[in-house]
Design a protein that fits this description.
Largest sheet: 8 strands, mixed
Shape: globular
Helix content: 25-40%
CATH topology: Rossmann fold
Order of helices and strands: HEEHHEHEEEEHEHEE
Bound molecules: guanosine-5'-monophosphate
Number of strands: 10
Distance between the termini: 11 Å
Structural class: alpha/beta
Length: 193
């Protein structure tokens, strides 16, 4: 998505530790009109899929998931929650996800009430790096006996292993921008053609 690449070049900040900050439109302040355009693009990319639910993980995936839902007939958005205690209740699906940006492992849960075997799920998230968040979300869908119809990512860091790992598993993965390289010294960012 050309407009997204341009926005990243204009507003993104490359931080030490291989982290791209896009707080200006996605991770802190939300550019609603722009997220709406990204939702429309996900609809175009997954137009042949019958989606009953959009699944993401708190917090940064929620905005884009909600705007994407607007383009899929307002299907419900479910966001996996980071559990506060390790007392995992029976009525929850749970998985463990290593956090890329916070260097810790979270217990992540979804209520069994909100995901079931009849669901056809589009998984959406802001970033794809090593793939831990997406693998965890796939695990939650599988526990529910539901179907992963596709995975939509706003920004994939293509030089990390997540994208190839998930594509090799056979999932339909679409990223709106794929970063080929970024440099925290020069702030230079290049995209995959
Ligand atoms: P993964 O689980 O694929 O290793 O990392 C993806 C998750 O880590 C995303 O949910 C996102 O919140 C966070 N993340 C990974 N890399 C970046 C980055 O460069 N910038 C930001 N803002 N978040 C990132």
């Amino acid at each position: 998505m050309k407009a997204l690449e341009e926005k990243i070049l204009k507003e993104g900040i490359v931080k030490e530790g291989n982290v791209l900050k896009v707080d200006n439109f996605l991770n802190h302040q939300i550019d609603v009109a722009f997220l709406d355009k990204m939702g429309a693009e996900f609809k175009r990319l997954f137009s042949e899929k019958k989606i009953t639910k959009i699944l993401t993980i708190e917090a940064s995936g929620i905005g884009v998931a909600v705007m994407t839902s607007k383009h899929f007939n307002d299907v419900p958005v479910v966001f996996a929650k980071k559990a506060k205690t390790s007392n995992i209740a029976d009525e929850l699906y749970h998985t463990r996800i290593d956090s890329y940006t916070h260097q810790k492992t979270n217990d992540v849960v979804v209520s069994k009430q909100y995901l079931n075997q009849d669901d056809h799920v589009l998984i959406v998230d802001d970033f794809l790096a090593n793939g831990c968040a997406i693998i965890g979300l796939i695990d939650l869908v599988q526990q529910a006996g539901a179907t992963v119809e596709g995975i939509g990512i706003v920004i994939e860091k293509g030089y990390q292993e997540g994208g190839s790992k998930i594509r090799k598993l056979g999932y339909h993965l679409e990223s709106l921008a794929i970063i080929e390289s970024m440099n925290d010294q020069t702030c230079e960012i290049t995209f995959r053609k």
